[in-house]
Amino acid sequence: QVQLVESGGGLVQAGGSLRLSCAASGSIFRINAMGWFRQAPGKQRELVATVTSGGATTYTDSVKGRFTISRDNAKNTVYLQMNSLKPEDTAVYYCNAETVSYRIVVTTSWGQGTQVTVSS
């Protein structure tokens, strides 16, 4: 089993910053892609950003230039630095990771979610 534990959410004023962290633990031989998704009330979950094991990143258009995803492979941790936050960034943010176990079983796991609220 793989566990993803997120931290760093909270309440911030528009224009402010937050940094989310997500640490993976469990039966992990290797972590492939890691990413962040978000789900606002009444909306579908959407992809925010991804980072491969080699460090290549992708972002949804609405966060480009404001958010930065990074990872520390030694710590099995992925981060999301969020700057210039807007009220429309308000959502529950979920960490996602594709892991490979020592038995070469590929698993996609999700964190429990962390609330980000941006006030205007």
Describe the structure.
With 120 residues, the chain is mainly β. The protein has strands spanning 2-7, 10-13, 18-26, 30-39, 46-51, 57-59, 67-72, 77-82, 91-100, 106-110, 114-119. The model has no long low-confidence stretch (mean pLDDT 96).
| Rounded mean pLDDT score | 96
**Could you tell me the radius of gyration in angstroms?**
14 Å
Helix content: under 10%
Order of helices and strands: EEEEEEEEEEE
Cα end-to-end separation: 40 Å
Uncertain parts: none
Number of helices: 0
Strand coverage percent: over 45%
Largest sheet: 7 strands, mixed
Give the tally of β-strands. Answer: 11
Q: What general form does the structure show?
A: elongated
Multimeric status of the protein: single chain
**Structural class, judged by helices and strands?**
mainly beta
Give the helix/strand layout.
Layout lengths: L1 E6 L2 E4 L4 E9 L3 E10 L6 E6 L5 E3 L7 E6 L4 E6 L8 E10 L5 E5 L3 E6 L1
Characterize this entry briefly.
This protein is mainly beta and 120 residues long. It has strands at residues 2-7, 10-13, 18-26, 30-39, 46-51, 57-59, 67-72, 77-82, 91-100, 106-110, 114-119.
Key features of this structure:
7-stranded mixed β-sheet; single chain; mainly beta; 11 strands; 120 residues; elongated; 4-stranded antiparallel β-sheet
